[in-house]
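quick one, 211 residues, struct below
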Amino acid sequence: MRSWSRSLLAASVLTVLVGVPSDDAFSSRTEGPAPSVPHPGSRLLARVPLAFVENAGQWPHAAQFVARFGAMTVLLEERGWWVSVAQTASAPPRRGAALRMTFVGSGEPVLTGADRLAGVHHYFLGNDPARWRTDVRRFGAVMYHGLYEGVDLRAYEKAGHFEYDVLLAPDADLAQVEVRVEGADSLRIDTDGALVIDTAVGPVRQPRPRT
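---
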């Protein structure tokens, strides 16, 4: 179990970007036939904005919202989130890694969807209508209200990456914010100030916070 915290003076917004490991970091490349041309429907889906989908009971885990960013899946829970990354190798067996990022000593924040997106999801699971969920909403961001005293958090997607802003009220203490990372092989600070989280399928980079 490893912890990482970062403090900045006179900050009102702290933005952190969690990057998916690059293909060069862990994908295997094999020679073979050229990839097929994507179906027109695939190109259409590629233009659909990435969304945080609320958990209305269609998933049994504790995540209140779920988002997928390419090889990365983020499950947002009350005090943090799980990040699952999958190897992008074209041939099996594919490997994966799961990281849990928890805000140490946080309160009991209320999670709400923000920036409502058009469209809904429907889930028809099995033959039991009691498990079916319809009109499940999609959002462009998720707010953590009351993460710490005077501290909220906004999780969102930007340019295909998962990012979050730490929002401080006047006189709020950023030193309260501490993130525990579990599931990593190691943690290190790169020369550019980025937090590098080494996993079984390659490094996940969290660039240096900016205000």
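Residues 40-46 form the longest helix (7 residues).
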